[in-house]
Every structure is written in structure tokens, then in C-alpha cells.
Design a protein that fits this description.
The protein has seven helices and ten strands. With 210 residues, it is α/β, with parallel strands linked by helices. It has a single domain, classed as Rossmann fold (3-Layer(aba) Sandwich). Strands 1, 2, 3, 4, 5, 6, 7, 8, 9 and 10 form a ten-stranded mixed sheet that branches. Helix 3 links the parallel strand 4 and strand 5.
Amino acid sequence: MQITVIGAGNMGGAFVKQLVRAGHQVKVTARSAVKAEQVAAAHPGATAVALQGAADGADAVVLATGYADAVEALRGVGALQGKPVIDITNPLTADFMGLTLGHTTSAAEEIAKAVPGAEIVKGFNTVFAQVLAEGADFGNGRKVDVFLASDSAAAKQTARSLAESMGFHVVDAGGLKNARYLEPVAGFNIYLGYGAGLGTAIAPVWIHKA
């Protein structure tokens, strides 16, 4: 598939690495053209492109920015009508130890409202960047779980195909409103990994035994 990754940070770079490894055609774009070029150069086969029109021709878009930058980034990449957008964001507080949204809405739902026509899929937000970069195989026959929530069955299937092509085990997490549960799960993971100092190899609950 042709995939556009928006974001050249740790998660964006990890996605580019795994998507290229899985044989996809990958474009990466970011606010900083230099960072996008650095990510592309680190993963031969990926191409750095300008933000404007970056989603043109893509079969799916991976939104790997911070939540605060998500809507602006999506509005800048071109037409998204009917296009699967995998939203990995979490609405984190400045210290990363809390959420700014919850209970009655989620980052994914707010992005869907702000960018109508895009087929938003919540996914990969519970996976640490280091885990994503290292790959889905956690050893001893274990696979890292990826939870997918969306109101679009077609977009969810596209996201599933992408995740499985990278080796991850997919769990169908229902409709997009269930992002209200997935985002706190990510917040708890972050607390355990960083706040409690347990490291990114924590999260045994989210590892599937093949």
C-alpha cells in the first residue's frame, strides 16, 4: 500500500521503519522538512515530501503528531474524504502524566469532528515508540497487541491489514467512541513506563501470546 506518515518524531520514525520493512510505499512529512528528510534517509525506500498534498494518492494516512498539532496537520495534507487515517495521538498534559480529555469525548472523536470526511481509526496509541521501532515480536512467541477502534469498517480493515503486515496482533476495539477507553490505557502505560520508572518493556497486559 501507499502510506503517508505525518510526523517525524519517535513514533513517526518507527512507523516509517516498520512500514518500509513490510514492503509498503511510504511518504513521510512533517512541520520540519529537515526532520522528514532525516527520517526518510534513515529508512531507504521512504520518501520525504512537503506537507501540502502529502496525502494525495495514499491508501492510508498515519497521524503521528502530538494531539495539539493533529487537526492543523491533517488539514494541510490534501483531500482526506473517505481516506483511512490512523490516529495514534493521546491528549496528554504537559508533564505526560495525565489526560486533557476523557469520559465524554476523546482525541480521536474531536479530530473526526474537526476533519469531517476522513475515516478516523484509533490505533497504536497504546504502543510505546521504542516497542514499535523494535517490532511486533516480543520474544517467546509473543506478539504486541494493537487495538483498533473506528466507526468505519472499511477503514478499520485497512488499518488491520497494515498492522498485520508489520507483524502485530490486532484486537477489534469497536466503535470510535471506545477511544475514550484506549487513550486512558495509553496514559496508564506511560505512567508505568516513565512515571513509575518501569520502562517501555512494561505493558505485559498488552502482549498477545501467539
